[in-house]
Amino acid sequence: MSPDTSAKIADTTLLYPPSADQEGSLHGAWRHDRGDGEGDGNGVRDVHRELAKLRAENAKLTEAIAARDSFLAVAAHELMNGVSPVVGRVDLLRRRLASLPPEKVVQELDRIAGVTAMFVKRTRTLLDISRLTTCALTVDAVPLEGREIIGAVVESFRPIAELAGCDLTLTCAGNTRLLGDPMSLEQVLDNVLSNAIKYGAGKPITVNLSCTPEQRFVHFEIRDHGPGISLEDQERIFRRFERAVSSGGAASGFGVGLWVVKQLTEAMQGLVTISSLPNQGTTFCISLPYDPGEKEHD
Questions:
Q1: For residues 36 and 156, what is the distance between their CA atoms, to the nearest angstrom?
Q2: Could you report the per-residue pLDDT of 27-45, keeping only the tens digit for each?
């Protein structure tokens, strides 16, 4: 072997392959320079660093899979719960149809329409999750009259509020023109008002629409008198698959309603805030950009 070849072999740095135990600890990885016989720790540190990155990525993937599986289980349960009342009321009406006066038949059909509408909202929520998680969300902001949209939403929920024993009131003040996407805004208000009725059943719910032109925002405030939300829970309720009550609560749902609210509101350049204390009710405020109109644009 020539002196040059011997020198090259002496200068070669070798990285011995590592092995990991069941806990993921690394063993047997070391770097050796044949030229001076001294071990080099750089290679070990590099391997440990890469292994730490892989562990972190694996933890994220495991968490995502667990969240997906949990959601699918809840979704299947909730959709089945949504179908059952419709089937039950139709069956009951069929059996009692001959003995019911026409006005009672109309009342039963209205109830069936109400529970069907709630089922449709649940299926739409599933579509929203798919849309919000598979692509970047964009909306087209156009001038809107806030009092018209909130008025229509409140009226659509009035029968449901009555069934829940909630006195639903609406007040509007000032210029309520805003910039937003009508379908997205309706869905945001639907979700928040639905939560207010769910958690504030049997107690009054107030909806207030106001404007602060100096701050360039129109505010939708929806207040219930339910159990309230602790400061700790307020930190998590806007995350995906989180509910507005803790796991010990009795209310059901996908746990994505407020997450959808936050995503859609921010896509419209708006802001969602919450004010709540345990046993003192909850107020959600949806703030969207104020539309000054043509005169202020000029």
A1: 82
A2: 554 444 444 444 455 667 7
